[in-house]
Design goal:
This protein has eleven helices and five strands. By secondary structure, the protein is mainly α.
């Protein structure tokens, strides 16, 4: 059935359609252009359609994004705050009748740093670690944290690390050193530690922000997932590429 026919059918039945698209940064430009063309036609025809597209920050402003989608209403979500991260961990477990206890949720929320993907990983590992239990307690959370860190190192951190340029790696290594004792630093301190000017490093900082590896809050800059800095320190101490 053509899209127009589906929209006509939905309108006749006083209904509508919600379409969600995830990982949009992985789509090629031609597919996104065709998708945008269909949506543009729908806007003119007043289709009963809502489309929600999600992707990494690197998608915005890139040549990959066609003009129509570039004009869409985009929202930078970023990381969840601590309260929201705890809720994201607790609520699904309550609904599944194996609730996560408060101290366990607080520990895992802090471990995740509020990074949405990390919250999913920590929550999944906590569920598995508590198999056969009535709830998810602090002991299960600690087991889950160790397993989640290992999972992220192999399936997330290492893949991102391999995709970085040498200068981007040096920038992350500087952040890892500076945040060994506190969670965040500033662009000026990073530049100072590398013996360079802030302006010389801005392109690498921007790339890392767009890729979702780094986050900022005011003048502070930090890894999107706290465990990433530990991974970078381990890579550096081991002398790995």
């Amino acid at each position: 059935m053509q899209v127009q026919g589906l929209m006509d059918l939905l309108r006749q039945n006083k209904s509508g359609l919600v379409v969600t698209v995830d990982e949009a940064q992985l789509a090629n430009r031609s597919d996104l252009a065709e998708f945008g063309s269909i949506l543009q036609k729908g806007m003119r025809s007043d289709w009963p359609l809502v489309v929600i597209v999600a992707g990494l920050p690197q998608l915005m402003g890139s040549k990959q994004l066609p003009t129509y989608l570039d004009r869409a209403c985009w929202h930078q979500i970023g990381n969840l705050d601590r309260i929201s991260a705890i809720e994201a961990l607790v609520e699904p477990t309550v609904a599944a009748e194996r609730p996560m206890l408060k101290d366990a949720a607080e520990d895992l929320a802090d471990e995740s740093g509020g990074f949405p993907f990390a919250i999913q990983v920590y929550g999944q590992q906590a569920w598995r670690a508590s198999n056969g239990c009535d709830d998810i307690d602090i002991n299960s959370a600690r087991i889950a944290a160790e397993r989640a860190r290992e999972f992220l190192e192999v399936g997330f951190f290492s893949r991102q690390w391999q995709q970085l340029s040498e200068n981007e790696r040096k920038y992350l290594q500087a952040i890892a050193r500076l945040t060994a004792l506190k969670p965040s630093t500033t662009s000026s301190l990073i530049a100072e530690s590398l013996g360079m000017k802030t302006s010389q490093l801005s392109r690498y900082r921007d790339r890392l922000l767009k890729s979702g590896i780094l986050q900022t809050k005011g003048n502070e800059i930090f890894s999107a997932v706290p465990a990433m800095s530990k991974y970078v320190r381990d890579v550096q101490s081991a002398g790995k590429d």
